[in-house]
Structure formats: structure tokens, C-alpha cells
Amino acid sequence: MIKQLSIFLENKKGRFTEVAKLLGEAGINMSAFTVAENSDFGILRLIVSDTDKAIKVLRDKLYAVSVANVVCLHCPNQPGALAKAMDIITAEGIFIEYMYAFSQGEAANVIIRPDNVEKCAEVLKANKLELLAASDLYKL
Amino acid sequence: MSREEMRKLQSIRLKRVVEHAYHNTPFYRKKMQEIGLTPGDINSIEDIKKLPFTVKQDLRDNYPFGLMAVPMSEIVRLHASSGTTGQPIVVGYTRKDLSTWSEVVARCLTAYGLSRNDSVQVSYGYGLFTGGLGLHYGVETIGGTVIPISSGNTQKQIQLMHDFGAKALACTPSYALFLAEAIKDSGIKREEFQLKTGIFGAEPWTENMRKDIEEKLGIKAYDIYGLTEIIGPGVGCECECQNGTHLWEDHFFPEIIDPNTLEPVEPGQPGELVFTTLTKEGMPMLRYRTRDLTSLNYEVCDCGRTAVRMSRILGRSDDMLIIRGVNVFPSQIESVILELEEFEPHYLLIVDRVNNTDTLQVQVEVRQEFYTDEMNKLIALKKKITHRLQSVLGIAPDVKIVEPRSIERSQGKAKHVIDNRKLL
Question: Which residue, B15, B62, B81, B304, is the most exposed by fewest CB within 10 angstroms?
């Protein structure tokens, strides 16, 4: 299962820079991230090369870190590819809290945070859709 | 009245009120007996130092009618202050108390230069709050015309002030500033109003606010001082000299004590203001600690009045905040935070005044295990604590969730409040 870190950040100057620096100095690479924000605070969600080490480094510096399981859909970087996957997920009554994506040439990676992560992975696999393994994503 | 004559009158009245309280209020009798004091020991105003103090908690402990010194059949009016830590405080007035109250408010209005030819728009709230009805009866006593509009509905306030030609406005100083802006926006020219006098109280204000109000509304702005426990507005007021608030010391005897030693301070020195009601029947107060910090000036004022003057309120000897006219204690906020398991037991209050309205920001930290990747859940947490705080405080705070450990943990007494209003 892919582990995603979520870090609570106040809307203050330089907060993200600090996190990036901290991880960089510890030799931890970021594979993907997204920020959700409102007027007071933001939640930085990220996937890194070494989850456990990142948690330790961040918590030592008193950051509020939580961990969530996500799935990463690996699909062709083509029109309609995502819609097909979404159809399948919706048809099974799975609710998506949020998702974010990045493409690499021919392929696209979509990180999905469903309400039921096991069921979501199962359903996608059963429909012959490709999922990226945690070990592969952490290396990106 | 000379100082000597005043002391004589105060001595006679103190003796009378102590006897009345001792014989008719078990609370006072018990407190005096505990220190071996009888009414016979009180022979002059100097003896007031022998009496025990009364504090706000005593009013709560004796809720609702435990401090009344007359049968309820003699009580013709009740007022109550906004409930702070759960229980509100209640005060009762006899018919004579109401006439005393009207009389002292009438003195204030006269000191502002108002008369029977003037109409006063009373924009304090009417109801359990003493502001509205207190001013109301004072205006009637001087034979002026009351416009009993109460608080709120700014557009109507402006329209009636204009149409009725109100000469004076009674409200909180911050509402006066708000109204001034609204008048500007209304497009009605200032010259079309007849307003000349402002009667402002119920919250702390500064010399700068006075200048601002006077300039924007084209009026003279005067302080009116009072507190529910003593009688309501009209315990004292400023005169045309605007150089200190005269206290009507023939009815409300003021003392200044050191809040730590509880001993009287040297004359003229700052300390906590303490009142004894010299003429109240319904609910007399003996040495009531107001928690307001100020000093007293016994020099005769340029206006000719001999009544003692107090300086602007310098602060509080407890940590009470007045926000939008509502009394707020940090301990109330603390109790809410302690009962919600999702939050760390640390908080910081930031009080400010933005566009003439007080703001209260409550900074809290969420406990590590309740942080989540889901924005909705954090927003729901924020709503939960906001609602809880609102129901306890009576005003809506702006809750801000901050990063773990970002609220300072101090060794000794934690600093819980930053007040940026610069009122003192």
C-alpha cells in the first residue's frame, strides 16, 4: 500500500520551504505532492522515497504529520483514460476524498485517496487497470 | 458641597446602610459576625475600612435573590448582567432605588448641558441590560424627550436621528464610530442632523477615540460610568471640562485599594476601585470590588463641582476582557478547550479592533492524533469549537488552528491574552 504523508501547515511565509529543506537535508526525495488550503492553514500531502524516515525527521521538528493509504493509478496519457477509471470507481459506490496527478510522457500517474482504499485497489485491478506499486512510486 | 459636609453626609448614610444590610441580609450579617463586627462599630465614613469586601462571586453564589435586603414585594424591577461563567448576576431595585437611579442619570445629563428642550436617542439595548432603561428614566427626569430606539438597525437609527432632530445620542463609543461611518455612507449631510452631544459608556475607550468621534459626528463626546452591581449607568460622568469622571459620592462611596494587599492606597495613587452604595435599599453593596483600576482626584473641578473625579480606567485587576460590550474571561475559553479532547490544553487570545468592531481570535492546537489529511475534518473541528465557544461566551470568536507547539509554553504564569486595541 502506498503511504502518503499529510503535514499541517499554517499559512505563513516560508513554511513549505522549511519542509522541503528538512527532507532534502535528510536525503529524502519527493515523488509527488499537492497542497490543499483555506484562509487559515494548508495541508501538504506528499509521497516520499522513505516514509518512515520522513515521519521521524518531521515529527522531531514538531510538525503535525498524519499518514493515509492511497492508490496510484498508472494509465495511458490519453483523452478518456481517466474517465474510464472514474466510471468504474463511481459504479462501485466508492467516494473519492481527493486526488492529484502527474504525467510522464506516454503515461500518467493519478494518486487517489478513496474512502475505502482496499476496495478501490481491488476494483481497479479487477477491471484490468494498472496500479503503481509503492516501491515503484517511491523511486520516482 | 464642601468636603467636610460631604463626609458628614456619607457618615450618616454609611451607618444607615450598614444597619440595613446587617439586619436584612443574612450574607452580610454572617460576614460581619465572622470578623466580630457589629453595626455599632461603624460611626463615621472612616470606619468603612473595617467592613469586609464583596466580590462578583458573592453575587453568583447568592443567585438569584440571596442578597436582597427587602422582601420581594418591595422589589419593583430586576436587571441582570450577561452571564459570564454560567450564572448571570441579578440585581433588584425598590421604587426608591429607581428614583435614585433616575436622579443620578439626570445629574449626568445636566452635566453634559442637556435640558428639557433636548431629545436623547437611547441606542443602548433595552431589557435586562441596565444601559437602555437607565438612560431612559434619566432623560424623563430632566424633562427631555426620550427616543427609545434601543440597539441595532443602523439605517433606522440614522433616519430617526435625522427626522426627530435628536440632540444627544447614548450608546457604546464603538457603535458611535460605526454609526458615524454609516451616516457618511447614507449620503445625508452632517449639517442636516441636530446632534450635539454623545453619551458613551459600557466599554473602555480612549482619548483618541473621543477625538475621532467628536470629529466625525461633530459633537462633544462624554463618558458615562456605571456597573450593574452598583446601580447601572450613572454612577458617575464627565462634565464639560472632560477632565475626569465625577462620581456621585453621596450615593456611591468610592475607595481605591491595592488589589494585592487590599489596603487603601495613598490619596491620588492608582489602584482598584471599590464602591459602597450609601442609599440603596433593594440590594445594598458593601465595599464591592469593581476590579477596575483607576485613581481618584479630590480637587474641586474647573466646572465648580466638588464631587470626586476618577481618571480613565487604567485596566483591570483581574483578566476580564470587554469585547463588543460583552464580558469575557479567559477562564471560560480555557474550560471549553479542556473539555474537547481533540485540542491541546493551550490557547492564545488575540483581541483587536477592526473598523470599530472588536475582534477575538482564539488560537488553538489540535492534538497530534487528530490531525488528518482531510480538510473537511479539520474544518469540522474548527466549527465544533467555534460553536461551543460562542454558546459559552455569547459572542462568536474567530478560531485559528495553529501548528503544534506554536503557542508559547511558559514556565510561570502563561500569557493567554494579547490585546492590540491599545485602549489603556
Answer: B304
Chain B residue numbers with beta carbons less than 8 Å from the beta carbon of A62 are: 403-405
Residue A138 CA, distance from chain mean position: 11
How many whole angstroms separate alpha carbon B358 and alpha carbon B351?
7
Averaged pLDDT for residues B81-86: 59
pTM: 0.74
Q: B371–A65: do the CB atoms touch at under 8 Å?
A: yes
Q: In this complex, is the C-beta atom of A68 within 8 Å of any C-beta atom belonging to chain B?
A: yes
A10 to chain B: which residues are within 8 Å by CB?
402-403, 406
pLDDT at B82: 63
Contact A68 B404 (CB under 8 A): no
Mean predicted confidence (pLDDT) in B117-135? 96
Looking up cell 514556565 gives B411
Residues in CB range of B353: below 8 A, 6 or more apart: B174, B359, B420, B421
Whether A40 contacts chain B with CB within 8 A: yes
Q: What is the grid cell recorded at B44?
A: 463615621
| CA distances for A16 relative to A34, A46, A90, B8, angstroms | 11, 12, 34, 73
CA proximity to B382, closest of B404, B364, B405, B360: B364
- Cell triple for B84: 459570564
Give me the interface pTM, i.e. the ipTM: 0.85
Q: Say if the Cβ atoms of A43 and B373 lie within 8 Å.
A: yes
- What does the pLDDT look like over B351-387, one tens digit per residue? 999 888 899 999 999 998 899 999 999 999 999 999 9
| CA A10 – CA B342 distance, rounded (Å) | 18
Q: Does A2 touch chain B (CB under 8 A)?
A: no
> Which DSSP symbol is given to B420?
-
